[in-house]
Fold this sequence. Notes:
alpha+beta; two-stranded antiparallel sheet; flat; 25% helix; single chain; 4-stranded antiparallel sheet; 38% strand; GTP Cyclohydrolase I, domain 2; 6 strands; 3 helices
Amino acid sequence: MKSRKVRKQLLYGERMIANSRLERFENRTKVRRYEVEFTCPEFTCICPRSGFPDFATIYIRYVPDRWCVELKSLKLYINQFRDKKVFHEDVTNDILGDLVALLDPHEIEVRGDFNVRGNIHTVVTARHSK
């Protein structure tokens, strides 16, 4: 019997996530400072030591300067972590770094509130300001 290689076709959501990139749009309310807050309650990544999934709620709060993040691109970006092996501290700082590079906000905070694992609840908070 001949062995046949089957190429797995990505589902449309998998393709969208794989091809996504963070996008921004111009802040149209530069006359005042204001806060934007997002809650991402279904965050997942993989523990690089055990291979077990980690679940978290990611909180993002920022004060825009010239740019705002486009929400669909943020959703797809967050979903890119679901198959990545990454520590809690790195995930939180990676998200912060990518958003700082994209937006250059007046200030920004990213908080990763990770579900209990092995009787330990982890919360990682990273901040940046101009």
